[in-house]
Each structure stands twice: as structure tokens, then as C-alpha cells.
Amino acid sequence: MAIDPVCKMQVDEKSAAATSVYKGVNYYFCAVGCKKAFDADPEKYLSK
User: Fold this and answer.
1) Neighbours of 6 (CB within 10 A)
2) What φ, ψ does residue 23 adopt, rounded to 5°?
């Protein structure tokens, strides 16, 4: 299980609602809204 970097929910990589690749790393999201927030400012969510 992956952790959605925006809302911190556990996400099954096989059934994730959305994915993004940032700096060569795959990120998995519970919802498209979380992906959009992450894509707009990835460092905001990775620096926590």
C-alpha cells in the first residue's frame, strides 16, 4: 500500500484513482483532487 502524499490515506497501487511521477518517483492518490493539488505544488506535500 502507498500513502497519498496529500491526504495521507493508504492507497492500493493497483486501484489508485490517479498517479503522478515526480523526480522519477511514482505517487498514488485516493482521488483526482489530491493529484491536482500535488501536481500544482509537489514540494509543498513532500517537504512535510
Assistant:
1) 19
2) 50, 40
How far is it, in rounded angstroms, from Cα 47 to Cα 22? 13
Would you say the C-alpha torsion 2, 31, 35, 32 has a positive or negative sign?
positive
**pLDDT tens for residues 1-26?**
999 999 999 999 999 999 999 999 99
CB-neighbour burial class of residue 38 (10 A; exposed 0-12, middle 13-18, buried 19+): buried
- CA angle, corner 30, sides to 48 and 16, nearest 5? 120
